[in-house]
């Protein structure tokens, strides 16, 4: 939602496709809806268009792109691929013990859907020889390399997150000659609605969650990610970054933007200095848990 909000605040027309509407929720059961997002962004000064769409359905995605083509005269400046929905499907278990159905479903949601969307959306960008694709992931190459053996402890989760980085690089290689940039972008410890609920806090009281998890002190709002996307999209030299895996904290320092409270959270510093030395133990404890 906050990525859309920041794009709207910058004056963009933003299409918000999704399954959760006020009339019907997705299987994730989240209370947020595409209509809520549309109102939020319109209030910020942008133009938000909510479209009910299941991104796993190629026919629905094709219809969405056809609608954008018709309504925007074929113009698509920014594509933010941020579909995930895999939290309940992650198991900290070896490949042979990980429930196969859950693992394959996770990959479908977190990787296949990104491919489906790009397949239909990219022709709009290549035709105009301009645009930016942002593949949102979890962890850049630098932080992922800090894990023992470079492995994040769950086979399908690891594949999902690293595959999105690779997908950005693949698209960059194919799109560069068309003047279109593609990057992978990771936030840090994200204060999403689900994380706030998990810690029993709100955005206004989020610091109360530090007592439950001291690393939460280094967290960032989704707005920080939105500002990173807007900054990249408005950089006339963004093509120089194509194919890279980027992080909100590095971009904040480079472009001098802040989170909502005026700070510049830097998750990598916390991760490198406090979590990385414990990763062998942390991953070991997680992978010893029985598969639920």
Automatic annotation (TrEMBL):
InterPro entries tied to this protein: NAD(P)-bd_dom_sf (IPR036291), SDR_fam (IPR002347)
Name of the featured protein: NAD(P)-dependent dehydrogenase, short-chain alcohol dehydrogenase family
Organism: Actinopolyspora righensis
């Amino acid at each position: 939602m906050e990525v859309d909000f920041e794009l709207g605040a910058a004056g963009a027309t933003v299409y918000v496709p999704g399954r959760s509407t006020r009339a019907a929720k997705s299987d994730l059961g989240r209370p947020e809806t595409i209509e809520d997002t549309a109102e939020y962004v319109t209030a910020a000064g942008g133009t938000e268009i909510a479209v009910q769409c299941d991104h796993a359905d190629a026919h629905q995605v094709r219809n969405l792109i056809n609608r954008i083509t018709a309504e925007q005269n074929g113009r698509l400046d920014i594509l933010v691929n941020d579909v995930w929905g895999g939290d309940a499907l992650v198991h900290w278990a070896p490949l042979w013990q990980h429930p196969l159905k859950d693992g394959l479903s996770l990959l479908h949601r977190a990787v296949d859907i990104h491919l489906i969307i790009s397949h239909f959306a990219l022709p709009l960008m290549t035709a105009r020889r301009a645009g930016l694709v942002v593949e949102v992931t979890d962890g850049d190459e630098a932080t992922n390399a800090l894990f023992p053996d470079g492995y994040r402890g769950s086979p399908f989760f690891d594949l999902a997150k690293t595959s999105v980085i690779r997908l950005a690089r693949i698209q960059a290689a194919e799109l560069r000659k068309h003047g279109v940039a593609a990057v992978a972008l990771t936030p840090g410890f994200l204060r999403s609605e689900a994380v706030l609920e998990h810690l029993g806090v709100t955005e206004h009281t989020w610091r109360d969650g530090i007592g439950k998890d001291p690393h939460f002190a280094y967290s960032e709002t989704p707005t920080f990610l939105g500002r990173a996307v807007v900054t990249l999209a408005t950089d006339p030299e963004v093509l120089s970054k194509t194919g890279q895996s980027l992080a909100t904290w590095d971009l904040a320092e480079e472009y001098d933007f802040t989170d909502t409270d005026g700070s510049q959270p830097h998750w990598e510093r916390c991760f490198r200095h406090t979590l990385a030395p414990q990763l062998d133990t942390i991953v070991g404890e997680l992978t010893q848990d029985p598969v639920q």
